[in-house]
From TrEMBL:
Gene3D superfamilies found in the cross-reference section: 1.20.5.1930, Histidine kinase-like ATPase, C-terminal domain (3.30.565.10)
Pfam families on file: DesK_N, HATPase_c, HisKA_3
Transmembrane segments: 16-34, 41-59, 65-86, 107-128, 134-151
UniProt EC number: 2.7.13.3
Chain ranges of the Histidine kinase domain: 186-376
GO molecular function: kinase activity
Protein name: histidine kinase
Enzymatic reactions: ATP + protein L-histidine = ADP + protein N-phospho-L-histidine
Lineage of the species this protein comes from: Bacteria, Bacillati, Bacillota, Bacilli, Bacillales
Length: 385
């Protein structure tokens, strides 16, 4: 069974903006004063239909959008001619929607129709309105004619920003795809011959182990040398890959926190001199995860990142002044957050013998501490970081 779609009065992306405009409908209601009977009921019916057109214009597209806008203009004309000339101010609703046309030709047509409606209403009431009232209404009429240009400019900018974001995402995906292909080619070219050689020599050792033990031992030692050479080749390949430094990640974190209106304070040397690219990449991923959790869950307005280096280790602490662990979010939420993000960070840190801890901050909030050794050893083969 298909789930029922939730009914919404206005699209969620507009927030409270559509509801604010509804306040201005109190003025046409006031203009009904002095009317009674069927004429008053008809006025309220037209106002209700106007509300329907107002809602539908937030959802409609293409031809239906034009039809609803045309109906809205017709209602404004009837309310202005039959009830009060001051109902012409309802044209501010329509001037906003005229500016939503992205196609220039449709925009010009809608603007021409809107201008014709305003001009017709003005000429109709010109003999009945006194000079001071004309001077009062004229600036508002001009504002209604100028508003579509401003609304269209704002909407056009939003569309361009959205298209730019999409283009940037596509570029990032293309870069990732190209990097994967490059890594695959390098692995094939670098490791293919070496692994084939190891396979052949291991088969030879298997045959010689009974017939010629000394030759088998020599071939086994050659396999060891070849495998170590292959390990060095892999490390060289990894070192050539693009690594994200802690300083770069902190710059991105500052931008994310700024967007979330969270103040950032950084203490310590973000350059981490002497720390390997692998360690910095893993630390950067931990910082990214920690900052993401702060933005999503902490409800904080301040974040402090402390970087401490000793001869043997690197310690990075992220602390916020938010709701803290288990407060307001509940134990389940704290466990869920720790179960996903913390587990991923712990798995990455285990590759370099690092560790992490999550605790409540000194003044409330949450404190995440990540510790990694500055030098990671791999037995006989020396440093791997």
């Amino acid at each position: 069974m298909m789930a029922r779609q939730q009914f919404r009065v206005f699209p969620e992306r507009f927030g409270f903006f559509p509801y604010i405009w509804l306040i201005y409908l109190v003025f046409p209601v006031m203009n009904f004063a002095g009317y009674s009977g069927y004429k008053l009921m008809a006025g309220y019916a037209l106002l209700l239909l106007f509300l329907v057109t107002y809602r539908q214009l937030y959802w409609a597209e293409d031809r239906m959008y034009t039809a609803w806008l045309g109906l809205q203009l017709l209602i404004i004309v009837v309310l202005t001619v039959v009830y009060s000339p001051y109902n012409m101010y309802m044209g501010f609703f329509s001037s906003n929607f005229v500016g939503w046309y992205t196609d220039m030709r449709r925009f010009r047509r809608a603007l021409a129709a809107f201008t014709a409606v305003l001009a017709g209403l003005g000429l109709f009431y010109l003999p009945q309105v006194y000079g001071p009232d004309i001077l009062f209404m004229l600036p508002f009429a001009l504002m209604m004619l100028v508003t579509p240009f401003g609304i269209r400019s704002i909407n056009r900018r939003r569309v361009l920003e959205k298209e730019l974001d999409q283009a940037n995402e596509q570029i990032k995906e293309m870069i990732k795809r190209e990097e994967r292909m490059r890594i695959a080619r390098d692995l094939h070219d670098t490791m293919g011959h070496t692994l084939s050689l190891i396979t052949l020599k291991s088969q030879l050792v298997e045959k010689l182990v009974v017939k010629n033990p000394e030759r088998a031992q020599a071939e086994a030692r050659e396999i060891q040398r070849t495998s170590r050479a292959a390990l060095r080749q892999v490390r060289e390949l990894v070192s050539e890959m693009r690594a994200v430094s802690v300083a770069e990640e902190l710059a991105e974190a500052a931008e994310m926190l700024r967007s979330a209106e969270i103040a950032l304070e950084v203490e310590g040397d973000a350059a981490l001199p002497g720390v390997s690219d692998l360690t910095q990449s893993i630390l950067s991923l931990c910082i990214k995860e920690g900052i993401t959790n702060i933005v999503k869950h902490s409800r904080a307005d301040q974040c402090r990142i402390s970087i401490v280096m000793t001869p043997g280790e690197v310690q990075i602490t992220l602390e916020d002044n938010g709701v803290g662990l288990g407060q307001d979010r509940g134990a389940e939420e704290a466990e869920r957050q720790g179960g996903n993000g913390m587990k991923g960070m712990a798995e990455r840190l285990s590759l370099i013998d690092g560790s992490l801890s999550l605790a409540s901050g000194a003044g409330g909030g949450t404190r995440l501490t990540v510790v990694t050794p500055r030098v990671v050893k791999d037995g006989k083969d020396g440093e791997i970081a």
